[in-house]
UniProtKB/TrEMBL annotation:
GO terms for cellular component: lysosome. Keywords: Glycoprotein. The keyword Kinase does not apply. This is Bis(monoacylglycero)phosphate synthase CLN5. It catalyses: S-hexadecanoyl-L-cysteinyl-[protein] + H2O = L-cysteinyl-[protein] + hexadecanoate + H(+); 2 1-octadecanoyl-sn-glycero-3-phospho-(1'-sn-glycerol) = 1-octadecanoyl-sn-glycero-3-phospho-(3'-octadecanoyl-1'-sn-glycerol) + sn-glycero-3-phospho-(1'-sn-glycerol); 2 1-acyl-sn-glycero-3-phospho-(1'-sn-glycerol) = 1-acyl-sn-glycero-3-phospho-(3'-acyl-sn-1'-glycerol) + sn-glycero-3-phospho-(1'-sn-glycerol); 2 1-tetradecanoyl-sn-glycero-3-phospho-(1'-sn-glycerol) = 1-tetradecanoyl-sn-glycero-3-phospho-(3'-tetradecanoyl-1'-sn-glycerol) + sn-glycero-3-phospho-(1'-sn-glycerol). InterPro entries: CLN5 (IPR026138). Exhibits palmitoyl protein thioesterase (S-depalmitoylation) activity in vitro and most likely plays a role in protein S-depalmitoylation. Belongs to the CLN5 family. It comes from Xenopus tropicalis (Western clawed frog). One of its GO terms (molecular function) is palmitoyl-(protein) hydrolase activity. The keyword Glycoprotein applies.
Amino acid sequence: MGNGDGSIPVMKNEDIIQVYRLQAPVWEFKYGDLLGHFKIMHDAIGFRSSLTGKNYTAEWYELFQLGNCTFPHLRPNMEEPFWCNQGAACFYEGIDDDHWKSNGTLVPVASMSGVMFNSMAKWIKEDNDTGIYYQTWNVRASPEFNSSVWFDSYDCASFVLRTYQKLFELGATFNRKVQTNYTRLLLYSGEPAFLGNGTEIFGQHGNKSLALDIRKFYFLLRPHQSWKELLLSILDIYYKVAVDKNFYFFYNFEYWYLPLKFPYIKVVYDEIPLPS
């Protein structure tokens, strides 16, 4: 577990730190390799001190589970949806070899000095204070490689990519022979239309019809449904997405309307090379 004060150990300047790519199926602890077959993966970074032999793990987590970060709760007698979408970096001693190796990846990708590690540790704290919300979706104009990105995801994979880039800027040496792929949950949409923040939509002087429509949309995605309710919700969601081509999107305390385009929703496992 991590230090209670949130600190990251200080390495000696002359230390050589090995950096490891860590990847395993989402919810591997519960479902094993099930989601791995669909390339729905969780990413993290491992470190090993050459001087002490100690291992460490850094990963970025949703604080209230993935479902709660992706969709809100609708509470009785409250108009505005309630979001539990906070995220944060976690740094702790040890690498769970069995977890990463059994159904995933544990492979060295870079090396750096203790000086670089300490600079990275400072940056992680700053990054953690700057980006505090987990964002599951990546919204693009089309599947084309250079298509417009309307909204970018902010998740475990993006944390790893930001950290790799920072390490490269600090002077870490990467082994680009290692192939690195990342899971992205994509929505394809025309240009998004801004709808307003929670107060503007759900407040006393808000847009009642829009508020009701947003609540109806998220009601289909509510947790703890029976199998019958879930089946009916899936059919309704399909109609909303594939027929009506509607999606209400929440980003940085604001709501947006997405006019979805084919193929609407897709899970991809894209290769993003190590920095060089």
